[in-house]
Amino acid sequence: MSHHLAFSLAGLTGLGGAMGFIKKGSKASLFGGLLTSAAFASSGYLIQQNMDYGFESALAASALLTASSIGRVRASALPKMLTALGLTSGAYYAYKIKQFQDGF
């Protein structure tokens, strides 16, 4: 079930990066969105296949999303939403890692 969140975040971040490029011509948005999308997609695959480091890589992708948007949080609503999404998904994946370590 956790892989669905990672794949959904991959789609959202990839789409967001593409929209930033289309609307404003921002190559940084395109590159960042596609990089974050690839990170979430690969972690989703690892989680789905029950492979090692799936949750950890999803946590790292969440940290990447948060770090890339937190500096622009005052600019508009979109960076605020991206920061909230990164923090929320990071908290979720940190919880899943804790569950795994505790044997649940």
From TrEMBL:
The region annotated as signal peptide is none
The subcellular location is: Membrane
Q: Which residues cross the membrane?
A: 30-47
- Keyword Cell cycle assigned: no
Q: Does the keyword Transmembrane apply?
A: yes
Major subcellular location class = membrane
Identify its protein family: Belongs to the TMEM14 family.
Q: Tell me the protein's name.
A: Uncharacterized protein
Source organism (scientific name):
Wallemia ichthyophaga
